[in-house]
Automatic annotation (TrEMBL):
GO terms for biological process: intracellular protein transmembrane transport; protein targeting; protein transport by the Sec complex. Forms a complex with SecD. Part of the essential Sec protein translocation apparatus which comprises SecA, SecYEG and auxiliary proteins SecDF-YajC and YidC. This is Protein-export membrane protein SecF. It is a multi-pass membrane protein. Its main location: membrane. GO terms for cellular component: plasma membrane. Keywords: Cell membrane, Membrane, Protein transport, Translocation, Transmembrane, Transmembrane helix, Transport. Pfam families: Sec_GG, SecD_SecF_C.
Length: 317
């Protein structure tokens, strides 16, 4: 039985030799992302800006989300997000916060009710104030920061602190570039996007750990091999697995992006970008950074081997 290889066996790509080019590209990408974020900012969704949430249930079977979106967009209330909520008949309507006080918010609710008439049953209506939205934003930032910190600790204990630094640099690169692409395209940035960023971090570190495992194995196996050569060999040995995993994941995400509808389009796009940039950072950043550290090549097994050789030598004498 023949195995599928997207990368030919025995590939010898000099990733370490191109590390300066990779570092320069990533540096420019991060600077550009920070600059675009500072200039354009993010198009925050209702979760982070505040607004109105209405849970309704269709009286005529499964709700037609597309028709509802078209119908309510004519009201001139700004950003309106509509998605199924639980059963097919139930829909969650989110409307951006209106200019003015509570009366302005209530007027928006009445406008929606006047447009939908008695075609739906109103289950719940809530107002998300600026304080709540600010708390949600800070919680999202805290979640990303804690995830990166936890990953640093995990890599530190599983490998060494040098590996942990390389992994965190790659993760920060992925997060900043994702924020930059959302600022550039003006796509909505909401809680689902934060969830996508956390998923990207998990996916990226999974790829990085696979490569780092091979690096650690080769460090013990080839103690006299030059570090750049050893790192290149480790990346090339795991390259087929990395590319295969990324491509199969991208196929599923592209299907979600094209066929999944408007509700999950932002999440799908963030994941697609994250898979691409995460694969790049795992191979082209996380590993080449190790060349600037002194990596330990001995372990307890080597000490045991030395003791055995010493005992055998004494016996021979």
């Amino acid at each position: 039985m023949r195995r599928l290889h997207m990368i030919p066996t025995g590939t010898k790509i000099d990733f370490i030799g191109k590390k300066i080019a990779f570092f320069a590209f990533s540096f420019c990408l991060i600077i550009a992302s920070i600059g675009i974020f500072g200039t354009n900012g993010l198009n925050y969704g209702i979760d982070f800006k505040g607004g109105i949430m209405m849970e309704v249930r269709s009286n005529s079977g499964p709700a037609d989300v597309g028709a509802l979106r078209t119908q309510l967009s004519k009201l001139g209330l700004g950003e309106i997000s509509i998605q199924e909520f639980g059963e097919p008949e139930e829909v969650l309507i989110r409307i951006q916060r209106q200019d003015g006080d509570e009366k302005a918010q209530q007027a928006a609710v009445e406008a929606v009710k006047s447009e939908l008439h008695d075609t739906v049953e109103y289950r719940r209506t809530e107002f998300v104030g600026p304080k709540v939205s600010e708390e949600l934003f800070m919680d999202g930032v805290m979640a990303v920061a804690l995830a990166i910190g936890a990953i640093l600790v995990y890599i530190w204990f599983r490998f060494e602190w040098q590996f942990g630094m390389g992994a965190v640099v790659a993760l920060i690169h992925d997060v900043i570039s994702t924020i930059g692409i959302f600022a550039l395209l003006g796509m909505e940035f909401n809680l689902s996007t934060v969830a996508a960023v956390l998923t990207i971090a998990g996916y990226s570190i999974n790829d990085t750990v696979v490569v780092y495992d091979r690096v650690r194995e080769n460090l013990r196996k080839y103690k006299k091999m030059d570090l750049p050569e050893l790192l290149n060999m480790s990346v090339n040995e795991t390259l087929s697995r990395t590319v295969m995993t990324s491509v199969t994941t991208l196929v599923a995400l592209l299907a979600l992006y094209i066929l999944g509808g408007e509700v999950i389009r932002g999440f799908s796009f963030a994941m697609i970008w994250g898979i691409v940039i995460g694969t790049y950072s795992s191979v082209c950043l996380a590993v080449p950074i190790l060349t600037y550290f002194v990596l330990r090549r001995s372990d307890d097994e080597d000490e045991e081997d030395s003791e055995i050789e010493k005992v055998e030598g004494e016996g021979a004498v």
